[in-house]
Amino acid sequence: MLKTTPEPTASHGTPHAEGVSNDEFRAAMSRLAAGVCLITAHEPPLTTDGPRGEDVGMTATAFMSVSLDPPLVLVSLREGSRMDDLLAEQPLWAVSVLADHQLQVAGRFAMKGRISDRLLFADLPHVRGEASGAPLLSGALATLECRTENRVEAGDHTLVVGRVLTADLPSPDGQPLTYFRGRYRHLGT
Q1: How far is CA 20 from the centre of its chain?
Q2: Cα torsion at 72, 129, 112, 158 (round to 10°)?
Q3: What percent of the chain has pLDDT over 70?
């Protein structure tokens, strides 16, 4: 017999087929403290004689080291997000590991529904990466420039594995900005 009603999805309290609901999963994962990064890329102009390209940025907590030899990192991007779409076309991108004094930067680039990032970068001290052309934040604990090696679809996200082309420590002695239980936090010293 054919079913005419769709299976319930695991929205909020409804369990997935495997038993855990979105709320249960989200609550459990919120207990995992994470560092906070700004992922950036430069979107090139559409035409050589058209308007200049635009810098794009997004706050990420799902970022990790993957390999030392070769040096690889991974960032998880929401499928269909502006950054996911851009990195599907643009293989060069950068990471700024945020310091605790860069809380406003994290909030600024985590806003949903923004049209342009141009104003978000306007007053932020940064340099342009020589390898990626992407903005690297001044005052970050570390900066990395990467080239995409692999993209893996994973549920509603894309895992982007990047080869690290450059690494720098603009403010190596600062304290990290962390994310825990749904809030940005300062790491106690």
Answers
A1: 25
A2: -20
A3: 86
106: which 2 tokens? 């994290």
Q: Count CB-CB contacts under 10 A for residue 123.
A: 6
Let me know: does 70 contact 86? Beta carbons within 8 Å: no
Which has the closest alpha carbon to 185: 78, 35, 26, 24?
Answer: 35
Q: Residue 52 corresponds to which tokens in the numbers above?
A: 């200049």
- CA 97 vs. chain centroid, Å, equals 10
- Name beta bridge partners: 161: 74, 150
Strands (E), the chain: 34-35, 37-43, 54-60, 63-67, 72-78, 92-97, 126-128, 135-137, 142-154, 157-168, 177-180, 183-186
- Specify the amino acid at residue 123: D
pTM over 0.90: no
Question: Residue 16: how many CB atoms within 10 A of its CB?
Answer: 13
How far is 147 from 73, CA to CA, in rounded Å?
Answer: 10
Q: How far is CA 15 from CA 11, 120, 154, 156, 181, in A?
A: 8, 38, 19, 17, 21
Beta bridge partners of 39: 58, 95
pLDDT in tens, 16-50: 667 788 888 888 878 878 899 999 999 887 767 65
